[in-house]
User: Which sequence fits this backbone?
């Protein structure tokens, strides 16, 4: 195996988990997950987390590392990912970074980190209320204090806007000039892609499978354990839609339609993010069997 880090990325439902497992089995590797949702305990169905059977086949790192009410910052994720990869290599195995959260992958590959500013819940609550009452206000405020960061963050990405403002409030310096790069070295990034209509059909089918597997019950269990619907983790795909259903504001059919639509939109945003990086080598997995996908990934690495 080369020393380069292997990365398998792409949109949701394209088959990253199965491909990463197949590659890991062939190369003697272990998977380091790059997903901002599978880090949460008790959120299995809605995040399409690797199954116990899959995890028994290949070791997975950075799954179930936080409760839904805990905050894992980008800097903390990167530190944990680097430590996990070092441990995998120390055991004579090959780390494979796999997931669909582009910012997590960038944080590892390029050493993209942000200052270690603890979350300020009171400030976040005030900023959330400000954005709720005056949509667009957070982006305008960030543009005033940090136009570079404002240009990078979508005006509707409230979570990232709040984080950038939070860092500025606590340090007095724009987050953009505090970001530093500490690359890990060579990385071979393989992006999985397929025909958009085919991917959307796969997304719809997976939502149906999640509902049949008990997604609504999983969400109800989280609510019963005291996790409020306003938590960022509970506002993720699958959870916010099921909460609306459980609260009686929409029917199950409407919730399912919204989840399918929102997931398709998320996949489109993932495509946009990953296609900005011209280092990613794209592999069209349409009509390819899993072994052929693994073969081609390995050839790219070699």
Assistant:
């Amino acid at each position: 195996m080369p020393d380069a880090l292997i990365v398998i990325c792409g949109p949701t439902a394209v088959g990253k988990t199965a491909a990463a497992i197949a590659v890991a089995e062939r190369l003697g590797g272990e998977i380091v997950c790059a997903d901002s949702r599978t880090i949460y305990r008790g959120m299995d169905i809605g995040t399409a987390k690797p199954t116990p059977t899959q995890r028994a086949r290949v070791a997975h790192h950075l799954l179930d590392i936080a409760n839904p009410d805990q905050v894992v910052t980008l800097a903390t994720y990167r530190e944990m990912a680097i430590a996990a990869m070092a441990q995998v290599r120390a055991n004579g195995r090959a780390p494979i970074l796999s997931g669909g959260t582009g910012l997590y992958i960038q944080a590892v590959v390029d050493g993209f980190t942000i200052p270690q500013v603890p979350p300020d819940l009171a400030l976040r609550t005030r900023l959330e209320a400000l954005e709720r009452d005056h949509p667009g206000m957070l982006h305008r405020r960030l543009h005033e204090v940090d136009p570079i960061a404002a240009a990078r963050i979508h005006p509707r990405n409230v979570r990232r806007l709040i984080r950038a403002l939070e860092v500025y409030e606590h340090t007095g310096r724009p987050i953009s000039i505090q970001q530093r790069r500490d690359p890990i070295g060579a990385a071979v990034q393989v992006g999985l892609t397929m025909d958009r209509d085919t991917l959307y059909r796969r997304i719809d089918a997976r939502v149906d499978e999640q509902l049949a597997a008990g997604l609504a019950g999983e969400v109800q269990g989280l609510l019963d354990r005291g996790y409020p619907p306003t938590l960022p983790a509970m506002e993720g795909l699958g959870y916010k839609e099921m909460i609306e259903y459980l609260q009686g504001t929409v029917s199950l059919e409407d919730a399912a339609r919204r989840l399918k639509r929102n997931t398709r939109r998320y996949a489109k945003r993932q495509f946009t993010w990953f296609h900005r990086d011209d280092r990613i080598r794209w592999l069209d997995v349409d009509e390819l069997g899993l072994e052929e996908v693994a073969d081609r990934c390995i050839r790219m690495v070699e």
Q: What stands out?
A: The CA atoms of residues 9 and 16 lie 7 Å apart.
